[in-house]
Design brief:
Layout lengths: L1 H13 L18 H7 L1 H12 L2 E6 L2 E6 L2 H9 L1 H4 E3 L3 H7 L7 H14 L3 H19 L6 E3 H18 L5 H23 L4 H26 L7 H6 L11 H32 L1 H16 L10 H5 L2 H14 L5 E5 L3 E3 L2 E3 L4 E4 L1 H5 L38 H18 E5 L6 E2 L5 E2 L4 E6 L3
Parallel strand pairs: 2-8
Antiparallel strand pairs: 1-2, 3-5, 4-12, 5-8, 6-7, 9-12, 10-11
Helix pairs in contact: 2-3, 8-9, 8-18, 9-13, 10-11, 11-13, 13-16, 13-18, 14-18
The chain binds protoporphyrin IX containing FE (HEM).
The site of protoporphyrin IX containing FE (HEM) has 22 residues, from helix 7, helix 13 and helix 18.
């Protein structure tokens, strides 16, 4: 403790009086991880903010940490990303999602750039048709069932839309198997986050990771042989070259696909689940969404006509519902970085090697930034009162490249959901499972009824 204190004093002098914020470390080594995982991020942050202010000291993920929950600090950390902060995952999570050393930083950066580019390109518009097809496929099975578990359905939907975008593959027993395998990865991460022990579900996840990677290798090799007219992200990545003009290898591609599916499918499924939950709980807003979507459907000549790009950009009210759901549900509640040098952020010392945890979910739910923050009120996103304290996808150079795809998926889903079905929750009370992303406990079973057209 003495040497730690001394080294901080040196840093304090070097950083012109910057000081560690108030806070608590609770138990040595374990720190406050258990409390965070038991309480959930919202309560953890609000309790500490009440005692110490919006920036406080804690100890989570095995490291001393500065937790901060302001939009300004979030922008500062994420915008200066490359220089002073590095992406951080605890070792157990890192072994489930990180690239192996054989994938060079340069290649990784190039692949990420092509992913970002294609998420802004024609490819994205072309994928409306696939999102349309997949949504109808998922929702058509509801006809035959008296009730469905919402989260199972939104997982199927989200996985297949992102999978189609990534590989050009339509739903099949092979894709269903991979979806199932991915659920073990999510479970492994959720459990290792909460319990700090690498138990059965973690080891199972490591095995599943291997199986998924092998499946991706087969998919890459197959796609090289059978090119299709309809382009996918994999086709674009296959053309990526490094500075020496060498093309990306198949094993690098398999990791890129693995990472993209990991980043994209579970998070989207969680968002769609909350869309169903919040709309079900707010019938008046549901009616407004339905009015907007009925107008679009009525303009179609045949009931089989798919949605077009023009339809997608003509859904302003439904778009605010998606933003409000992202604000209130907080699919990602914090973003973590490691300081790679000592930093003085407005008088707060962030020592080298410490973590910075950016509590985006906490400022989304704070009355300091959003009036009546716990109320589901999409109108807060109508111009000109658009909130600025809103970063569900992060910000700066690592801001989520998938956000436009998510928006398209969500709009297509809501269109078919509200024009085809009414639903009600089977349980009157539902808790929340927070890890690794918050979901309604039990996955929200609902009773569905087909609407008369
Ligand atoms: C509701 C759905 C989603 C949410 C809330 C979400 C949120 C985020 C956030 C907060 C980050 C930034 C993390 C950081 O800076 O450390 C991120 C990064 C990322 N997301 Fe998403 N995401 C979603 C869907 C998707 C989808 C559909 C895809 C791909 C198809 C995707 C691909 C990625 C990738 C590849 C990164 C890493 C970017 C980088 O490291 O430069 N995400 N996402």
């Amino acid at each position: 403790a003495r040497s730690r204190k001394n080294s901080h004093n040196v840093q304090i002098n070097r950083l012109h009086g910057a000081q560690l914020p108030k806070g608590s470390w609770s138990l040595p080594w374990i720190g406050e991880s258990f409390t965070l995982y038991r309480q959930g991020p919202s309560k953890f942050y609000s309790q500490r903010i009440a005692s110490y202010g919006r920036t406080f000291r804690t100890h989570v993920m095995g490291r001393p940490t500065i937790a901060t929950s302001t939009p300004e600090a979030t922008r500062f950390v994420l915008a200066t990303e490359q220089k002073s902060f590095a992406v951080f995952y605890p070792p157990s999570i890192s072994s489930l999602i990180s690239y192996p050393p054989s994938v060079s930083q340069e290649m990784k950066a190039r692949m990420m750039k092509t992913t970002r580019d294609s998420m802004r390109s024609e490819l994205l518009r072309d994928k409306i048709a696939a999102a349309d097809r997949i949504t109808r496929w998922v929702l058509s099975s509801w006809d035959k069932q008296p009730f469905v578990v919402t989260f199972q359905e939104t997982q199927k939907l989200a996985f297949h839309v992102v999978f189609d975008f990534a590989t050009g593959m339509t739903p099949s027993p092979e894709t269903m198997q991979m979806m199932d395998d991915y659920s073990y990865i999510v479970k492994g991460i959720g459990t290792s986050m909460q319990f700090n022990v690498l138990g059965t579900s973690y080891h199972m996840a490591l095995q599943k990771k291997q199986q998924i990677l092998e499946a991706f290798l087969r998919i890459v090799k197959r796609r090289r042989l059978q090119k299709s007219k309809e382009k996918c992200q994999l086709d674009i990545m296959m053309e990526v070259e490094n500075d020496n003009g060498e093309k990306i290898s198949d094993d690098q591609l398999q990791f890129q696909l693995y990472g993209m599916m990991f980043a994209g499918s579970h998070s989207s499924a969680v968002l769609f689940l909350w869309l169903v939950k919040f709309l079900g709980d707010n019938q008046q807003i549901l009616q407004q969404v339905k009015a907007e979507q009925d107008t679009i459907r009525r303009r179609k000549i045949s009931p089989e006509d798919p949605l077009s790009w023009m339809d997608i950009v003509n859904m302003p009210f439904t778009s605010t519902v998606i933003q409000e759901t992202l604000r209130l549900a907080n699919v990602v509640s914090f973003i973590t970085r490691e300081a790679t040098e000592d930093i003085n952020y407005e008088g707060v010392l962030i020592p080298k090697g410490w973590l910075v945890q950016l509590g985006i979910g906490s400022f989304h739910l704070s009355p300091e930034y959003h009036k009546d923050p716990l109320k589901f009120d999409p109108s807060r996103f109508q111009a000109p009162a658009k909130p600025t304290a809103f970063s569900p996808y992060g910000t700066g150079p690592t801001m989520c490249p998938g956000r436009e795809l998510v928006k398209i998926e969500a709009l297509v889903f809501l269109h078919y959901l509200v024009t085809t079905y009414s639903w009600e929750s089977i349980r009157s009370k539902n808790g929340i499972d927070y890890w690794p992303n918050p979901i309604v406990k039990g996955g929200l079973p609902i009773k569905v009824s087909k609407l008369m057209t």
